[in-house]
Structures are given as C-alpha cells and as structure tokens.
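Entry type: protein chain
Record version: 2
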Amino acid sequence: MTSHAKRRDKIRSKLRKNRLDAMLVTNFTNVGYLTGFTGDDSYLLVTCSNDIVLSDERYTTQLEEECPELELAIRGPGKKMLSSVEEQISSCKIKLLGCEADSMSIALHEALHRAVPNCRLASCLGWVEELRVVKDRHEIARTRVACDQARRAFDVVRAALTTDMTELQVAADLEYQARRFGGKCLSFPAIVATGARSALPHASPTLQQIGASDFTLIDWGVNEGQYVSDLTRILVTGKISPKLRKVYGVVLKAQLAAIRSIRPGVACEAVDRKARNIISQAGFGKQFGHGLGHGTGLDIHEAPRLSQGQSTKLKPGMIVTVEPGIYLPGWGGVRIEDDILVTKSGHEVLTSVPKQLEECVVG
C-alpha cells in the first residue's frame, strides 16, 4: 500500500468513527497530500469504500500517471465542478458529507447545499492538516532536498554579492539560483532588507543598495517541487558594530538554546519560552514580537506553532522552524532561522548555512 493510500485510509477511519458517508477534499494542497497529484483545480471524494478525483480534461493524462490507482471523474468543457460533485454524491448515494470548513467558501457551501438538498453537510475541520503535522520518511527526504537547494542557492548568491546590488537584485538572484539547483521556485518571495529596513520582519525587497548599510537580513527558502525549506541569515557587508555584535549574540544564544530543548514530549510553548526568556533577560523582550517558529511541509506555514499558549507536544517526524528575532526601529533587525526535525531521541538541524557572526561577513 502506498503512503498516499494509507493517508486516505486514515481519513476513511475518521469517516466511520464520525458516521459520515464521505468527505469532499477541496483544498488543492490536501488533495495532493492524499493522492500524489501535483496539479490543481481538482477535488477528492473519499468514501467509505473508494476514492474519486474530480478534475477536468487538462489533467487526465497527468492524473493517470501520478494516481493510477484512483478512480477519475473527468468533466468536459463547459461543465462546472459543482455539477460533477453533484453527480458523484448522487451516484455514491451519499447522505452525510464531510467538508473542509477551513477551505470551502461560504458561496461554495451554499451552492452545494442547494445542489444536493438531500445530503447533509458536516465539518471535517483540520482532518487532513492533522495528518500532515507528522512527516513520513519520504516527506523528510524531500525536505532535506529543499534545505540543500536553499543552501546551494545562497552560497552562490553570497559569493557573487557586491555592495552596489539592490535588495531586488539579490532576491531575483536567489530565485534564479534555486531553480538552477533543481527547485521549482522559492518557498515564498524572498525577504531582503538592508539596515534599518531589516526591522520589518516581512520587508519587501526594494531598490535600496546592499552597501547602504553594514548588514542585510535575508529570509528565503526553496520549494523542491512539493516540500519547502525556510531560513534566515544576516550578511555583514561592512563593519561589525558593538551594537550588532550584542544583538546578534543574544539572538543566536536564544536560537541555540531553543533548538537544544527540542525533543519528543516537549510542549511547543516551552521551546518558545526558552528563546523568549533569553531575549527578555537581555532587555529586548518587547522587540521580539512574533512566535518562535512554525511547521513546514507542503505549505510554508503549517502546524505546529512554536509560540506562547501552544500546548501541543512535539512528536518525532515534526519539522519546525526556530527563528527568534530582535527588531529595533530606526536601526535594524536580526533574525536567525533554521529548520529542525524532531527525532525519536531529540532533534536534527536540517539546514547547514553558517551562522556564527564572523562567518556572516561578506568579502
């Protein structure tokens, strides 16, 4: 049995437990997770006895290649998805249908309710996302590839970096190099922020030249085809000022302490607290205004969250970022981020870009 089939069987078990006839998966990412299909614009109907992919003629061959074991319901030109869903619900005699409440729009829910008035709709909130939290060997292997592609792309960009390059040029070069090393694209639009602009955690690249300040924050990752990586580093293009050395030292100390605390059974909020206490004790508590990290996988932000109030316990197979930061308006910000795998005995750092301050000096 394939990993995708096992995932669908877990959904089937939940259907039986909740006395539902079927579940309609409308989140395209979740459809891919349950089937291996890498396209979009397709739904998956999981019943207690079979699985049906609802798609259109653009994807017929791709679906036959990627999901040969699945039944296909392919609609022709001019036929709407809703009509195809209605036909399958009627054909399978579904009376109780589970829906993805966090991805199905109100408009689609209402239209579906009108289309199949004899079928009652129920919420299957987070069913697939719960499965996605713990990665299997295949997912971990693909994440390793994404991390390596991110490292290789960064190494090339760093080697060619000049102070007259703009933030936008650096971001574009990262995208280009990620693709050169086999990546589908970046995990998200790269954040490249020089000097005072690095105090913006999600700064968009501009025409500001890298040499306008002594340091630049770069936040990037690579989508290797399905799974993603997420890293942040500081590059020093000028002098290491006493203030930069101090702030960077606090952030690095906080990150390393948090990483050391990662192991099965530890609460997500406890890992966040490890880093937050160090930053607060250094006098920068109010300048660390976001959670410590998040899960990665098919999406750049997945469960679990390493943050205050998150009591979820870490489990082997979870992959999380650890990214403490200190942001000082008018001066700049420092964030250091790595991807961490929770193992049976502790953790493994999947990313390997140097992060000691002296190692971040360009030239």
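Comment: The radius of gyration is 23 Å.
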